[in-house]
Specification:
CATH superfamily: Alpha/Beta hydrolase fold, catalytic domain
Order of helices and strands: EEEHEHEHEHHHEHEHHE
Strand order of the largest sheet: 1-2-4-3-5-6-7-8-9
Helix content: 25-40%
Distance between the termini: 20 Å
Number of strands: 9
Largest sheet: 9 strands, mixed
Structural class: alpha/beta
CATH topology: Rossmann fold
Number of domains: 1
Length: about 270
């Protein structure tokens, strides 16, 4: 895994691949996500786009005020701080939920939205109860269950999750945000999102099942769905080549103003694992 220079400026911590001109791409990680989740995207697109990953202050905000909307405000402030008039917004899991809420509040700031394994309609991870602490094997199994191939859950990733849920404050933050996500169900508001939207879903996603991606596709008018076989909750990690081809095609069409939703709105993108 490559190391990235984390920029610390004002209230923000983030990585940035460098200004390439054009519309920047902002990547939003999930509840237990990390920079490494986006390694494939950063490596593939950094030569053509400015790729930014703000590190969401999930464990820095006071528990009393922590919510999904508080993280949306953080993203709003970050985009203002960077001076961007328009962005591509990509989110995985909770990050996708934040992307939707940001887009609903700031539709003129979003050139396109990309959701993958996103919450906002339904999610089944640790639930909204206190995570089981002190049991490494349990957390290892939970981390592995996120992926079609359990080997994607490296020891580094499992250790990170285990460390988080065994820190009392952090574990309480996880539960608080999980509950907040459930409260901010967006089913009745998604038809208001008009920006070009790409949905990339693992067919074997057990956290936000593929029917959730299909429901997003049904409710977001200007959206298309790419389904990836032999893939779980994080296609950009588990099937990076497939993910990057789908994303590259989408960005090219959006930026050339040739994005048109096809008749059935679903693109089949199923490849064998090499």
């Amino acid at each position: 895994m490559a190391s990235h220079n984390i920029i610390e400026s004002d209230m923000f911590r983030y990585t940035e691949s460098g200004d390439k001109g054009g519309t920047p791409v902002i990547l939003l990680h999930g509840l237990l996500g990390a920079l490494s989740n986006f390694e494939g995207i950063i490596k593939h697109f950094s030569d053509s786009h400015n790729i930014l990953v703000p590190i969401l202050p999930i464990f820095e905000i006071s528990l009393r005020s922590l919510s999904v909307m508080k993280l949306v405000e953080y993203v709003e402030e970050f985009i203002e701080y960077k001076g961007y008039k328009e962005v591509h917004l990509l989110g995985n899991s909770l990050g996708g939920h934040i992307a939707q809420l940001y887009t609903l509040k700031n539709p003129n700031r979003v050139r396109s939205m990309i959701l993958t394994g996103s919450s906002g309609l339904f999610e089944s991870a640790m639930g909204t109860t206190f995570p089981k602490r002190g049991n490494y094997e349990y957390m290892k199994q939970k981390a592995e269950s996120v992926f079609y191939d359990p080997a994607i859950a490296t020891k580094e990733l499992v250790d990170q999750v285990y460390e988080t849920v065994n820190d009392l404050k952090r574990a309480m933050c996880v539960v608080a945000l999980a509950k907040s996500a459930v409260r901010h169900n967006l089913e009745d508001r998604l038809d208001s999102i008009k920006v070009p939207t790409l949905l990339v879903w693992g067919i074997q996603d057990g956290v936000t099942p593929v029917w959730v991606g299909e429901k997003f596709n049904e409710l977001i008018p200007n959206s298309e769905l790419v389904k990836v076989d032999k893939c779980g909750h994080a296609p950009m990690m588990e099937r990076p080549d497939a993910f990057n081809i789908a994303l590259g095609s989408f960005l090219k069409r959006v930026e050339s103003d040739t994005f048109i939703v096809n008749e059935n709105k679903q693109l089949s993108f199923i490849r064998k694992v090499c």
